[in-house]
Please model this.
Amino acid sequence: MPAGCGHARAAWLGAALLALGVLGLLLGASVGSTGLGSVFQARHDPVAWQIVWDIRLPRTLGAWLAGALLGLAGAVAQGLFRNPLADPYLLGSASGAALAMALAFAVLGVSGLVAGGSGAALAQAASPWLARLGLTGAAFVGALAGVLLTLVLAQGVQQTMRLLLAGVVVGYVLGAVRDLVQLAQPDVLQAMQGFTLGITGFVGWGACGVMAAMLAPLLLAAWLLARVLDALTLGEATAQSLGLPLAPLRGLLIAVLALATGTAVAQTGLIGFVGLVAPHLVRGLARSTHGPLLVLSALAGGLLLMAADIAARVLIAPQELPVGVLTAVLGGVYLLWLMKRR
Model:
């Protein structure tokens, strides 16, 4: 396919993903226990306005932002490691965030939580400020700490295979430590359910602001570093022959990957397959270099998680499915279909 045709197709795909995202945001504002009526009554009914503006819209937009961060991180990971099965949680960010959350619950105490407790339940049991800042901050710091530990074990960013192996080791070790914390305090296991299953129901405007503030600069940084990913596609030796300082540039890409993943995980918990599937969908629809691919993967990831969030509200209404469970099922089915097709 000619380069011009590929870029035109990528531009059309980006416009379509943006349009679908806007439609999804409007649809998300109308999906809930009170149905579409709240949207029509919002101008005249303060309760309906609060439902739409304070609950549905930030939740739907938050799902899009978290999905965009995971889609961006997935595209960076797959390009960096030259592996189509790489995902945002590869370098220990997920296990680090989960351990940090478990420790936060253990320190704060969760014996007073209601059944099926989660970070949101703790917000009511303790204080909203402490829960939003303390638990979100703990998950973010834990995700970054997991990545830093991986980098220490890998002795830097020079060898991709060493990074992958270190990430696997860190994931298992931190996961085992989290299990020990949960065994020591069984109430922590109950409180961790919402985080480990992935949940978007308690995302507010503050969380949307945090994710938007991180997404914009990270997307710009990834775009500027796209040339490095293009060079790595040709092989390590070829990339070095182009005169690129691979070690510091690879470190910057890992920083983008870690910050994007940590921000999303801190706000919505562990939502799998979005970062893995979004780049695959984009590559199947439009062949392009990594610059457009990174942007399209972010748009596709946002649309995927937004659609999953809406479906989670609809499928067993008036109850809800954890969105992370839904993305795991749909993502697994898609990958199995992709394997059979190829």
DSSP finds 16 helices and no strands in the chain.
